[in-house]
Structure formats: structure tokens, C-alpha cells
Amino acid sequence: MASTPVINLRKGHAVRHNNEVCVVSAFELKTPPRMASFVQMSVKALSTGKVYNLRMTSNESLESVNLNREPHEYSYKDGSDYHFMHPETFEDVVLMADQIGDAKNYLIEGQKYTVQLADDIVVGIELPPSVVMAVAEAPEGVKGDSANNVYKAAVMETGLIVQVPLFIGPGDKITVKTEDNSYLGRSN
Predict the structure, then answer these.
(1) Model-level pTM?
(2) Residue 8 CB: number of other CB atoms within 10 A?
(3) Predicted confidence (pLDDT) per residue in 62-99, tens digit
(4) Dihedrals phi, psi of 105, to nearest 5 degrees
(5) pLDDT given for residue 135 in this prediction
(6) What range defines the domain where residue 104 resides?
């Protein structure tokens, strides 16, 4: 693969670090006075989810990796395997539980997700910014608590626990922000 100077990298680029395919998640070029400039960046290993904080001089390079993102529909879970189907070729892509990680809390059958392929090898999935989910369990709101902005814990259809307003009940569909498991609003 081609070597890319770190000064040319940006957030979202794929590189190889410690023999792992990583995606740049944060990037900052620093030029302190009377010192050589350097790059401070964070890269996340796609296979393990581990984050590396790197500090490299601006003339160093990293091996770039061809990272493709393709939409796939989540089909089903079989044991510890998660099956995704390509919408055009109907090819079945299988991801292991360690490749999915905490994203399993947002996988809903029939919804589309972005599958990441590095050098034509499936390395993980990318979640959308928000997901519409059904509430499976939610305790009744206590009368009189509605004067304040009070939340209760609700269990979603995937097992994820989200803090929701008191008026949300079982069967309601809500939008959940995937970055921090926060409630965004009701959905139809």
C-alpha cells in the first residue's frame, strides 16, 4: 500500500497502525513557537475498537488503507454471528460479536447500516447518528413528578436501557442517539 504523510490525513481516513486497520477519529496539527510542527491524532482500530493517541512529526508517514463503506441491511443474529445482506447483490455478510461490539444494542432487523471493508475484508459496521427503536419495558410514571424534567429508565427492544420522559410507555417508538444512548424524541 501507499504511504501517506500524516500531515495529509484527516478525520475518517483509514491507515494501518500496529498491523491493525485504524480510522482517524481526531486530527490536529500543532505548530508551537520555536519548535518543529507535529501532528496529534487519535486512531481507532476497527477490529478491536481500541483507540491509539499518536504524536508524530509532520514529515512522518503511515500506510494508507483502502476503506470502503457499503450499505447493508441487518437480517438476523445466529448465535454470536450477525448477518447483513447487501441490498443489490443479496450477498450475506457475517460479522462476529467482537466486530460488532456495543453496536449490537442498536441492531434492528430490516434497518440499513454501513458495513466497513478494508482491503475487501469486513472489519466492522458504522452506526447511523440515530436509530428508531420500540420501547419493550417502561415503568409507570409517578403522578406529581411531571412538574420537573423527570426521566425514567426504559428497556428498548434490543435490551438497551435509555432514560426517557415519564409519558413514554411500552410499545412507543422513540429516536435514540447512538453516540451517547440519549433520547431524542418520539417517532411515528
Answers:
(1) 0.68
(2) 12
(3) 998 887 889 999 999 988 899 999 999 998 988 888 77
(4) -70, -10
(5) 93
(6) 67-126
With 0-12 CB in 10 A as exposed, 13-18 as middle and 19+ as buried, what is 24? buried
Check which CATH number belongs to the domain holding 77 and give it: 2.40.50.140
> Can you read off the three cell numbers belonging to residue 24?
482517524
Question: How far apart, in whole angstroms, are the C-alpha atoms of residue 50 and residue 29?
Answer: 22
Boundary residue ending a domain (48, 64, 80):
64
The residues of the chain scoring below 50 in pLDDT are none
pLDDT of residue 145: 57
**Largest separation between any pair of C-alpha atoms in the chain:** 65
Instruction: Could you list the beta-strand ranges (E) of 6-160.
Output: 14-17, 20-30, 38-45, 51-57, 61-64, 67-78, 81-85, 92-96, 112-118, 121-126, 130-137, 151-156
